């Protein structure tokens, strides 16, 4: 072999790689294999973890991490070595069929060699010559043919490799495009069935690979996919269809596998992305299949549907399920594919006719007893109706029979919900779409469909009541646990029910009344005094829980029905039905409140309480969206019924009921067993309040309610357990309840303009609390340290929520006037005492809101020093917290985020908010010798360097905070500093490059990094341009001072005028323009000092000119990303590139020359032309016009690079010299 490694050692390495005894052994073996089988890709370079693991190895082992085997110098040599492994692997019996759990050393070698070949082909295919590409493809195909009994995962890996080679060589070589002909060797007459199975798997792998998008080469891969779609996809599909007909006649032992491979191939063909939309898996049930017009004959003439239906009747499960999945795809072929309306109608009616046969025949009903077939049939119904119009479906002469049997099938599906619960949403979708476009059908058809929907509405309602009891008994998962999925399902049910709303609604009301009556009877039994905790309570509790769960479902359903109201379509009868339903629900709520006040705790159920109250909250939300708002005056019928029964004749009265009844959810029962459910209920209640307070009209209504007024006056009630800072929860939503609560109250408080008096009354409880803390800090209070900490923890969380919803200057100034300077010392003192505690986190989060100038709310009068004072307080907080972070030790490496990085992230956030606030002139601090800004930036530099660059990049929240500071810092503050430490600059530039480099970076961080680089380059370029202009002017001045004509001119000017002015002019301008008085000499000295300062090179310019490897590194990173990757922030990436090129033109020329020379010889001339055009028309300046011209050039360059298969220059970060 070509490398110095024997096969036995290789087998051991591969066995360790795939079956490691430890992580360290796997990493070590991986580094050894990368040495002997290099991929020549940066992705395969030893990572930090690998290097750290290998640190304890021998010197020989460590040397392996430094490069690759000297016997392999190119990707093609490495690929030939892998090919040699596949050809010469010992123990061929190991490749025969063995149990999947047995992994022999030979199989591991084959798996590794195949995987490594795939990596080499994927990264370096363009470096292979055409004969090498064809030879490798032929070898893989021959290897698969010679090893038909290899393990399935080996065959799958080899098929994927063959598909990848075919894809990458598709455009440049016509031989790669003769796919079906080349696969025919597997389908020769008389060949074993196993070869046909492998042949179909190869075709499937190629289709799947062609359909796989790439972010890096999106345009090129799409071009390949389009070419494949237009030339080979249809022949493959037709070939698979013919094979399916053949498979129907075969009865060999492996025929089921053969049929499965054929059906999988057909399904993959129809799942192809025909129009380049790149759909995800979730969109599989949405939209139609956009097959090209060339496929028309398949669906119009070939009898494709007949073949599929015949196969479905003949095949057994699971192949029959695959057939039904293909039928589901056939039912969603785009309407415009067909040549005429008659052809489309014939296709539609064919499907409908077969559906009737499947549902009415004994054989079809027997097939549908299988869960998989039943589920796929439901999917087919949903996709069929989503694709074709109701008017076309209604033209079927047996439409009523078809819709009738579908209705019966749906009803059975609702009743059999335990058997196939995931199929119910598809049935609901089908009927929802039938109803939504029912107006396009004839009146008789509308009436017929509506009569069916009434029965279906009842059947689904009954199934939900059964589900409530089954969930309590543990037979099924409770759908109430996932409210989002539940709401989505009920929305489709509401569309169906509102089609014939009066009849369906009456049944819903009747069921609700019966359950409500039963609930009252059980309450009476429970309160009759005949039961006790030891006698009869268990039975009553069980019955009550069942009824309450059923009522919970009813409340959810009624809420969905009311929320499904469309204002411009709703009739008076429908509004009246909504009113009757709402009245029943309000009656149940009143009944439940009465019962909750007197219910013994041993009868209550925490889960039932959570679910029923969640349903009530959902009801309130839906009622508000339909009947409380700008158009509430049009809903007369609803409020007429509510007024007659409950005295609620206006939206304001209903809002009062909503606020009053749900307020109890914020209170705690005190039972520890109920804590989890009560916490979730608090979250959902606050979500309701937030929605109520978000509407312009509703928040003004809420502001006037008695309940709200009482809440504003007593907002820190001790009954609200979530306001207790000592209560902790692992649920993030629960821990944020306090902030959410005060965000909502702040929004309500400031809903009116003149709120100064209400504001001072609102903050009074905080004043009393903070005054007490101030006394405690002075030693005049009995509060203990832990009590003070908990009090401040709660207060600063409250203040954070309160200030977060402040949106204008008036509101912010009110808060600032109250908080500063009275209580800012408390924050600083608390930060000094508890910086490492969660209190420090709470203060920093509050201060981030306090210092943020969102909506330009932080605006002070021109004579006010408040902006400066605010930043000085921010500086004190940041300095105190930052110094503690610098000296804080870590308990373990795994605690980096919680113990240190999280605090640093908050420091960065507050600093970014302060520097970008634009409410303070930072030059004042330097002018008067104030260290507020300096100490903040010095701490920032220290914190920055305390974090390894790898960690800064790998923690997303930390990275976003850091680069937001860098973006602001480079914009307004960096160039104003007298100097920056070189270590800080090196760190900053390295981080800027590393965040851009990854193939899947954080787009926001990458954009901010590019912006920072662009600002730095722009400053340096502008300084150099100004310096050049100044030098040119000085040269002209020196020439003009020696000119006699100019001296005579100035002398003549000195004789003009009279009096003192004349005398002063003659003094200043005599003698050739040189001063002759002492005053004149002092002016000249100041001018000379100013000129001397201008001549001094700015430290940033000096640093970059002395360390051009920094510019080289940034250019390499950005140029390679722009030229070879497809990023969503492409424009941002292109902007700093111009400055990097203009600042270091020599390196740019050298790199582009290497770039051209590294390409294949036949492409170098074309690449050279593209490179030459890159700077065409670009000048040495940073004007917008020049930038735009360069961006256009690089867009053209990138497009040409994408069309050609180019090699990237193997210049690494180390080569640039920066590291």
TrEMBL record:
Keyword Cytoplasm: yes
Cellular location(s): Cytoplasm; Nucleus
A Pfam family reported for this protein in Swiss-Prot or TrEMBL: TPR_XPO7
Entry keyword set: Cytoplasm, Nucleus, Protein transport, Transport
A GO BP entry: protein export from nucleus
Gene it is expressed from: XPO7
Entry GO MF terms: nuclear export signal receptor activity
Exportin-7/Ran-binding protein 17 TPR repeats domain mapped to chain residues: 469-730
Compositional bias segments (type: Polar residues): 1055-1068
Domain of life: Eukaryota
Region (Disordered): 1033-1091
Signal peptide bounds: none
Native source organism of the sequence: Dissophora globulifera
Record-level GO cellular component terms: cytoplasm; nuclear pore
Family assignment from sequence similarity: Belongs to the exportin family.
InterPro entries reported in the protein's UniProt record: ARM-like (IPR011989), TPR_XPO7/RBP17 (IPR057947), XPO4/7-like (IPR044189)
Protein name: Exportin 7
């Amino acid at each position: 072999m070509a490398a110095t490694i024997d096969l036995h050692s290789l087998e051991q390495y591969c066995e360790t790689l795939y079956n490691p005894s430890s992580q360290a052994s796997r990493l070590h073996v991986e580094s050894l294999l990368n040495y002997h089988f290099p991929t020549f890709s940066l992705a395969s370079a030893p990572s930090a973890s690998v290097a750290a693991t290998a640190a304890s190895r021998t010197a020989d082992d460590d040397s392996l991490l430094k490069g690759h085997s000297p016997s392999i110098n190119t990707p093609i040599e490495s690929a030939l070595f892998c090919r040699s492994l596949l050809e010469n692997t010992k123990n061929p019996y190991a490749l025969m069929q063995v149990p999947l759990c047995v992994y022999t050393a030979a199989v591991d070698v084959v798996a590794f060699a195949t995987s490594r070949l795939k990596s080499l082909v994927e990264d370096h295919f363009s470096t292979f010559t055409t004969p090498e590409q064809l030879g490798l493809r032929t070898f893989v195909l021959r290897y698969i043919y010679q090893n038909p009994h290899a393990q399935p995962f080996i065959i799958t890996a080899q098929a994927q490799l063959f598909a990848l080679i075919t894809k990458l060589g598709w455009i440049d070589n016509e031989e790669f495009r003769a796919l079906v002909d080349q696969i025919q060797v597997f389908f020769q007459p008389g060949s074993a069935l196993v070869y046909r199975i492998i042949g179909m798997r190869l075709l499937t792998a190629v289709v799947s690979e062609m359909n796989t998008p790439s972010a890096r080469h999106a345009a090129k891969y799409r071009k390949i996919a389009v070419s494949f779609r237009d030339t080979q996809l249809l022949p493959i599909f037709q070939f698979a269809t013919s094979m399916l007909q053949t498979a129907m006649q075969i009865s060999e032992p492996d025929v089921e596998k053969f049929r499965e491979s054929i059906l999988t191939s057909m399904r993959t063909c129809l799942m192809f992305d025909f129009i380049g939309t790149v759909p995800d898996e979730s969109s599989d049930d949405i939209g139609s299949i956009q097959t090209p017009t060339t496929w028309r004959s398949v669906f119009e003439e070939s009898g494709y549907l007949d073949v599929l239906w015949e196969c479905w009747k003949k095949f057994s499960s699971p192949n029959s399920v695959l057939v039904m999945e293909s039928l589901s795809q056939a039912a969603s072929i785009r309407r415009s594919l067909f040549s005429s309306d008659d052809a489309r109608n014939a296709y539609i009616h064919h499907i409908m006719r077969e559906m009737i046969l499947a549902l009415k025949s004994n054989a079809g009903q027997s097939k549908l007893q299988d869960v998989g077939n039943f589920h796929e049939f439901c999917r087919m119904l949903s996709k069929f109706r989503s694709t074709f119009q109701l008017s076309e479906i209604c033209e079927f002469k047996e439409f009523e029979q078809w819709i009738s049997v579908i209705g019966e099938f749906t009803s059975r599906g609702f009743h059999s919900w335990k058997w196939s619960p995931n199929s119910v949403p598809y049935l609901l979708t089908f009927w929802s779409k039938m109803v939504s476009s029912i107006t396009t059908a004839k009146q008789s058809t509308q009436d017929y469909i509506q009569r069916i929907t009434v029965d279906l509405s009842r059947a689904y309602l009954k199934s939900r009541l059964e589900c409530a009891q089954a969930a309590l008994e543990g037979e099924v998962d409770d759908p109430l646990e996932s409210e989002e999925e539940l709401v989505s399902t009920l929305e489709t049910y509401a569309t169906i029910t509102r089609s014939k709303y009066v009849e369906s609604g009456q049944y819903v009301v009747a069921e609700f009344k019966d359950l409500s009556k039963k609930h009252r009877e059980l309450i009476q039994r429970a309160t009759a005094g005949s039961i006790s905790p030891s006698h009869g309570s268990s039975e009553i509790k069980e019955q009550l829980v069942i009824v309450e769960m059923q009522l919970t479902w009813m409340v959810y359903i009624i809420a969905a029905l009311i929320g499904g109201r469309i204002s411009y379509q709703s009739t008076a009868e429908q509004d009246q039905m909504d009113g009757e339903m709402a009245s029943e629900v309000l009656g149940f709520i009143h009944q439940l409140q009465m019962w909750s006040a007197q219910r013994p705790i041993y009868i209550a159920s925490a889960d039932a309480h959570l679910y029923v109250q969640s349903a009530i909250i959902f009801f309130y939300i839906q009622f508000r969206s339909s009947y409380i708002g700008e158009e509430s005056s049009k809903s007369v019928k609803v409020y007429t019924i509510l007024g007659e029964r409950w005295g609620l004749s206006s939206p304001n009265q209903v809002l009062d009921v909503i606020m009053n009844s749900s307020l109890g959810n914020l209170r705690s029962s005190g039972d520890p067993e109920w804590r989890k459910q009560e916490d979730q209920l608090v979250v959902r209640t606050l979500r309701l309040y937030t929605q109520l307070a978000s509407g312009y009209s509703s928040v003004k209504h809420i502001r006037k309610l008695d309940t709200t007024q009482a809440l504003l006056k007593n907002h820190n009630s001790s009954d609200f357990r979530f306001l207790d800072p000592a209560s902790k929860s692992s649920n993030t939503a629960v821990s944020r309840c306090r902030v959410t609560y005060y965000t909502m109250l702040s929004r309500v408080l400031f809903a009116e303009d003149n709120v100064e008096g209400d504001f001072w009354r609102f903050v009074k409880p905080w004043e009393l609390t903070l005054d007490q803390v101030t006394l405690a800090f002075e030693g005049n209070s009995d509060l203990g340290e832990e009590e003070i900490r908990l009090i401040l923890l709660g207060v600063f969380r409250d203040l954070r929520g309160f200030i977060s919803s402040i949106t204008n200057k008036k509101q912010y100034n009110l808060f600032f006037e109250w908080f500063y300077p009275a209580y800012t010392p408390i924050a600083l003192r608390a930060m000094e005492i508890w910086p490492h505690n969660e209190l420090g986190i709470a203060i920093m989060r509050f201060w981030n809101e306090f210092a943020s100038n969102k909506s330009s709310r932080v605006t002070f009068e021109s004579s006010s020093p408040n902006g400066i004072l605010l930043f000085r307080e921010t500086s004190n907080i940041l300095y105190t917290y930052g110094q503690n972070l610098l000296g804080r030790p870590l308990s373990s490496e795994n605690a980096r985020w919680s113990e240190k990085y999280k605090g640093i992230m908050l420091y960065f956030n507050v600093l970014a908010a302060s520097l970008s606030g634009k409410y303070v002139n930072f030059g004042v601090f330097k002018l008067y010798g104030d260290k507020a800004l300096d100490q903040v930036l010095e701490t920032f530099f220290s914190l920055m360097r305390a974090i390894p660059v790898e960690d800064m990049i790998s923690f997303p929240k930390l990275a976003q905070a850091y680069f937001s500071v860098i973006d602001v810092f480079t914009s307004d503050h960096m160039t104003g500093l007298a100097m920056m430490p070189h270590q800080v600059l090196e760190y900053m530039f390295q981080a800027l490059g590393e965040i851009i480099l990854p193939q899947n970076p954080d787009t926001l961080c990458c954009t901010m990094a590019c912006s920072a680089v662009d600002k730095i380059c722009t400053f340096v370029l502008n300084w150099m341009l100004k310096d050049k202009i100044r030098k040119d002017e000085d040269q002209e001045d020196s020439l003009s001072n020696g000119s006699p004509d100019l001296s005579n001119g100035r002398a003549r000017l000195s004789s003009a005028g009279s009096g003192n002015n004349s005398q002063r002019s003659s003094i200043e301008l005599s003698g050739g323009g040189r001063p002759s008085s002492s005053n004149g000499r002092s002016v000249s000295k100041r001018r000379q000092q100013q000129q001397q300062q201008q001549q001094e090179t700015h430290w940033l310019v000096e640093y970059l000119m002395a360390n051009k490897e920094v510019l080289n590194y940034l250019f390499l990173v950005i140029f390679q990303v722009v030229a070879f990757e497809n990023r969503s922030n492409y424009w941002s990436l292109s902007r700093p590139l111009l400055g990097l090129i203009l600042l270091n033109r020599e390196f740019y020329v050298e790199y582009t020359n290497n770039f051209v020379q590294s390409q294949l010889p036949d492409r170098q001339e074309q690449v050279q032309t593209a490179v030459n055009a890159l700077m065409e028309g670009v000048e040495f300046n940073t004007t917008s016009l020049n930038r735009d011209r360069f961006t256009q050039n690089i867009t053209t360059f990138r497009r040409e690079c994408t069309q050609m298969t180019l090699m990237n220059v193997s210049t690494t970060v180390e080569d640039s010299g920066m590291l």
